[in-house]
Amino acid sequence: MRFEHIIEINSPQVTVQTVVPGFTRAQLWLGLMMRVQTPQRFPNGPESCDWQETAPGVFARTLRFGQHVMQDEVQAVAQQSLQFTPQPHGETAPIRLTITIEEPQAKQMVLRFVYVALGEQTAEEAYYNEYRHNAWLHHDRDMVKSLREWLDQGEFESVSH
């Protein structure tokens, strides 16, 4: 199973830029790192997250959603990409998420989200893929919405380059 979508962060269209302030790459990266280190700030995030940098750019995390505890590893390539790899739990195939910052043309920046199952899916799991795809798309849009709100509130002002 593979699911991919793109969310535009900065538009090359002047009319859009005047209405929606653009991110610098550094500001966007800071926001993405918030998803790694403080995911509880985002809609539908965990209640808590404990993390430790085990090597440069590698984070081991424990996320708590009520009584459900999930562990994952995040690999960060500074200002380029994040890769979230959950530890297997139960008989469900883990699904890896990679978020990549791309600049397809001048003044345009997008985030590419790629979800890949790391094992064979059961027929039951495959049945729910369309629901998962919709949930992931909404979740990722909510994350970008939060980042935009925080940009408007000045949370990324100290990082402008």
CATH first level: Alpha Beta
Extended strand count: 7
The helicity comes to: 25-40%
Q: What's the structural domain tally?
A: 1
Shape: globular
Could you name the ranges where pLDDT drops below 50 across 5 or more consecutive residues? none
Q: What is the alpha-carbon Rg in Å? A: 16 Å
Number of helical regions: 4
Report the sheet with the most strands, covering strand number, pairing sense and barrel closure.
7 strands, antiparallel
Distance between the termini: 37 Å
The whole-number mean of residue pLDDT values reads 91
* Percentage beta strand: 35-45%
Specify the CATH homologous superfamily: START domain
CATH topology: Alpha-D-Glucose-1,6-Bisphosphate, Chain A, domain 4
Trace the largest sheet across and list its strands.
1-7-6-5-4-3-2
Write the CATH architecture name. 2-Layer Sandwich
| Topology pattern, helix = H, strand = E | EHHEEEEEEHH
Structural class: alpha+beta
Give a description of the structure.
The protein has 161 residues and is α+β, with helices and mostly antiparallel strands. It has a single domain (2-152), classed as 2-Layer Sandwich (Alpha-D-Glucose-1,6-Bisphosphate, Chain A, domain 4). The chain is 30% helix and 36% strand. It is built from 4 helices and 7 strands; from the N terminus they run E-H-H-E-E-E-E-E-E-H-H. The protein has helices at 14-19, 25-37, 123-127, 129-152, and strands at 2-10, 48-55, 58-65, 68-77, 81-86, 95-102, 109-117. It is globular. The chain starts with a strand and ends in a 9-residue tail after the last helix.
